[in-house]
Amino acid sequence: MPNLTDIPGIPQIWTRTKGDPQIKIAILDGAADLERSCFQGANFSQFKPYWSEDIELNEEYYYYLNLSLEFNEQQKDKKDDPDHDKEEAKKEREAFFAPFPEAIRRRIELSSHATHISSTILGQHGTPAPGIAPLCTALNIPISFAGDDFISPVNLTHAINTALQWGANIIHIAACHPTQTGVAPDLFARAVKQCQDNNMLIVAPGGNDKGECWCIPSILPGVITVGAIRDDGQPFKFSNYGGEYQNKGVMANGENILGAQPGTEEPTRQKGTSCAAPIVTGISALLMSVQLQRGEQPNAEAVREAILNSAIPCNPEEVEEPERCLLGKLNIPGAFQLLTGERLEPHPQPLSYKEMGVNEPHPQPLSYKEMGINEPRPQLLSYEERRVNEPHPQPLSYEERRVTTAEFTPPFPRREGGLGGAGGLGQVATIPQSVTPSAASKLVYALGTIGYDFGDEARRDSFKQLMPAVDIDGAIIPANPYDARQMVDYLSENPTEAKPLIWTLNQELTPIYALEPVSGFAADIYETLVLILAGQIQPEDSDDFVERVSIPARLTDRSVELFSGQVVPVITLTNTRGMYGWKVNSLVDAALQTVITEATAPPEEIAMRKALSSFLNRVYYDLQNLGQFAKDRALNFSVTNAFQAASSFAQAISTGMQLDSIEVEKSPFCRINSDCWDVKLKFFDPENGSRARRVFLFTIDVSDRIPVTLGQVRSWSVRK
User: Fold this and answer.
1) What is the pLDDT of residue 117?
2) Phi-psi region of 509 (alpha: psi -120 to 50; beta: other; left: phi over 0)
């Protein structure tokens, strides 16, 4: 990739923003050389770690640094030689660096790494190494200087806690600690979770171990894993994949990435997942800057999901091993559109630097050679001069941190022809490469009603032909496959016929998903769908009547066209766990049984029943959603398992209060490797406006296919 401007979407997003100084990026790596011209004028400083000691940057250090720069230049020329053997080059490199003192060699390696990726993120435009988000603020936190403790969990914990105290919005962690289990030391895992709970986005490279290998911290939940693709769009063979990487990782350009190097103004091109990850970090910073432009607070979860949701899956016909592509390739226009609801198009009139409120970048500086003088050895600032001791920021309130991501329905293409083959969903339309409407975790927990569709006339007529005629008042009439009663009777006698149908999940009679049972329990799932459909056609006063269903599933990157021409995404169901059908009144009765006692007065019971029914219907209708985002899955589960809500209503109604609002927010407390959200019910007194409002909160973990509630209902009073 010759330049960053060749990456689709970067030139367009630069017409909107080149970053905002309010967005703070912590870069956890080696010690970057901040004296390079690409960092001059940048809001970039360096922290002096108390857990690691730097070596003395004396004449010996600069002597070996200059030798390494000369060697790199020689190797650059050999790379262009097709006859140059890679293994031979590796041996040459090992032989060259053998005489280097170990501490100096490691210091140069870590500094080179940090300088390169820092310039990719923050390099000022108009310099030899321009970056993606030059106007953002950054702090380089060296994990280590020259020791073998760069991937030490203790050092990493110290560094990430420093980023937390500094108040970073994004934490870029360059370290890659190999792991076979995917389990991080508890101390470090808790530090990562604490940052995420404080609205911080963490980005890390997936590693270059050439296979199904994983690294800490990239394997941890909520961390964006970044793999590397070549300039031709193929994934590098050395880029790690597998495990949880497949559900939380994107691929970014990782070949020929231009960046700065210590001790010289001559940039260099490098490759690897460590070069790809800064691209995702820089784009994340620009997306947060866009949020500020829109008057919103930076929202790490919204940015993370936008990046993962919009990843473009690799085409198996073009990529030999598409599983190496993780969720897919970084899609900057798609992420922008998911986050804002707008298409990423160049700004009609590019803003001037004055309009953007920033200083115009310094023009391309002349090299020392062009000025006819010898290049001076850089005088590094002391760490005391670079150190930033900024007080911990006032934590944002939940209200300030809440950002609603715009709903987006992509323009799905129509597929040609009808459904093919008996059984299954037949031919499916390919979702366009602009946006992939999948949840970051691919998990779905949605509410609605069950329906079915034929896809085309041929499939419909095949059912009409096979279904028996119906006797109505002595008259024999042909079967009507659209009559749900006739279809239930037919499927009850012929259960295998459930498979050729396209089963749908509907909201207000509109299909939102096509349901595809898979795995060894597919037959049981089809049977359950038929039973639910049978319940939906029962009289409303029947005990077997089904008014609402819950469907836990996993979103695919496929879609299917229905008979009406509507195209809906396909979700897969692996077993019947979590598939529930209920009637609102019956659910209310069951929930109230847990809180109603003999001492409960009839008026209170009536009020609680009315309030709980209102709460359920409000979620069903007013807060209706697709169940893809984590907060939506938590909200939907709160009405599936209404017992916590019933407990809240019992306490509130007994004091004369009524429901005011329903909110779902990221929980500040959670178990390790979980995704916890707080459902907050706020109550008010309609007869006393000066009375304090009452808040009831219960926590739901949505990290699994079936959400679970944690702990007990908590309650407190708040000012009006």
Assistant:
1) 94
2) left
Distance, CA of 362 to CA of 356 (rounded, Å): 16
Q: Is the pLDDT of residue 551 over 80?
A: yes
Indicate the length of the chain as a whole number.
720
- Residues 624-678 have pLDDT tens digits of 888 988 888 999 998 887 776 777 777 777 777 888 888 888 888 888 878 899 9
Q: Region 282-291: what's the mean pLDDT?
A: 96
Question: Which CATH number describes the domain made up of 4-79+88-349?
Answer: 3.40.50.200
319: which 2 tokens?
Answer: 């990529």
Tell me the fold of 587-718. Answer: Nuclear Transport Factor 2; Chain: A, (3.10.450)
Distance CA 621, CA 49 (A): 53
Look at residues 254, 4, 1, 285 and name the one whose alpha carbon lies nearest to residue 129.
Answer: 4
Q: Is the pTM for the entire model greater than 0.90?
A: no
Structure tokens at 214: 């994983």
Six token digits for residue 228 = 């590397």
pLDDT recorded at residue 347:
55
C-alpha distances (whole Å) from 14 to each of 85, 88, 116, 344, 587 are 40, 42, 21, 10, 52
* Most trustworthy range by pLDDT among 374-378, 390-394, 470-474: 470-474
ω into residue 217 within 30 of 0, thus cis? yes
- Is 587-718 the same fold as 4-79+88-349? no
* Domain spans in the chain, listed from the N-terminal domain onward: 4-79+88-349, 429-582, 587-718
